[in-house]
Amino acid sequence: MSAEDLVIARPEGLYCRPGDFYIDPWRPVARAVITHAHSDHARGGHGHYLAHEHSAGTLRSRLGEITLQTLPYGEAIVHHGVRLSLHPAGHVLGSAQVRLEHAGRVWVASGDYKTEPDGTCAPFEPVACDTFITESTFGLPIYRWPVQAALFEEIDGWWRANAAQGRASVLLCYAFGKAQRILHGVDASIGPIVVHGAVEPLNAVYRAAGVALPPTLRVTDPGVDAALLKRALVLAPPSAHGTPWMRRFGNYSDAFASGWMQLRGTRRRRGVDRGFVMSDHADWPGLQQAIAGTGAERVYVTHGSVAVMVRWLSESGLDARAFHTEYGDEDLEPGMAAGPHPGLPPEGEGERAAP
User: Fold this and answer.
1) 76: burial class by Cβ within 10 Å (0-12, 13-18, 19+)?
2) 87, 88, 114, 216: most buried by Cβ count inside 10 Å?
3) Is the pLDDT score of 185 beyond 80?
4) Strand partners, 329
5) What is the tens place of the pLDDT at every residue in 58-111?
6) 193 pairs with which residues across the strands?
7) pLDDT at 243
8) What is the pLDDT of residues 234-276, one digit of tens each?
9) Cα separations (Å) of 68 from 32, 82, 151?
10) Spatial distance between the Cα atoms of 110 and 91, rounded to a whole number of angstroms
């Protein structure tokens, strides 16, 4: 670490020294800048929160009454001489990259990001900088996502075939971000859509932000009976798998939507009929595209395949280093590790079920 570094790693989290604030800290601090509302990046106990305005609903629903300041994308504030602004990360609603400018230096902390637009949040925006802090959740060449149109053609085909056979289609997916992407992208004319109680409150936040989602039902709503469920697409968090809540769907087909479905054998270990390769993180080409788009000469790598990414970037001529963090992956929940793999987070580091 150099005395001129704008951001350093401390036990509490990534710390901006001249500004005296933290970015996505994992321990309580006085001032926290939050890139997005997934619980490994947005934790309770901080004195003051700063986040994008579209994160307000999810942050308050998860953390309760907090002292929260919000900004739109691109609007800058100055704190202790540090010029700070938020820019789209394309990860989930309200996700932001944090641009810091001080004494002629520009750093960008990306949080989590995805480079393909999905229609449910502002698309990723490359931000020029000297130093870029990047995630590497899927930082291995094996990870290459299907284009969105192909992904939803596959999901729609599965749902349509199940509906024709009188079977519910239960799709397990993370309640914040991925569920809303699925709702936005599927062909809602195939049948009714039923969502778990963990999903619907997040749907309300997206709708309030102007994101178009089709009508959704809960299993307890009037008119939701066995006949309706036989044609339904059901969205539920992975934690619902194997619980009594699932019994009401009878002879259903189930599937799991996750970037880890790229790995051979993961669907079998999850115990589901189908696996759809879908992630709100950048794949290998997306990571390379995003890093190159910043023009940064120095790159710090956080969670995921850190060693692989640092080595690859170093061999590409960049000054690449690592930050140790306590971020996880929202695709995995406690006890749901997809199996041993160099790019996979350890068991138990995943995102908890949404409120």
Assistant:
1) exposed
2) 114
3) yes
4) 350
5) 999 899 999 999 999 999 999 999 999 999 999 999 999 999 999 999 999 999
6) 233
7) 93
8) 999 999 998 999 999 999 999 999 999 998 766 666 789 999 9
9) 10, 19, 36
10) 10
Under 8 Å CB-to-CB from 132, ≥6 apart: which residues?
A: 107, 108, 110, 291, 294, 296, 298, 299, 300
DSSP element (H, E) containing 199: none
Residue found under tokens 């990001």: 113
Does the pLDDT at position 342 exceed 80?
no
In this prediction the pTM is: 0.91
- Does an H or E element contain 68, and which? strand 68-71
CA dist 57 → 1, 209, 211 (Å) = 37, 9, 14
Beta bridge partners of 258: 277
For 185-194, what is the mean pLDDT? 98
Closest CA to 281 of 187, 140, 106: 140
Phi, psi of 303 (to 5 degrees): -70, 155
What's phi and psi for 77, nearest 5 deg? -125, 160
Spell 156-174 as b/e; 16+ CB within 10 A means b: bebbbebbeeebbbbbbbb
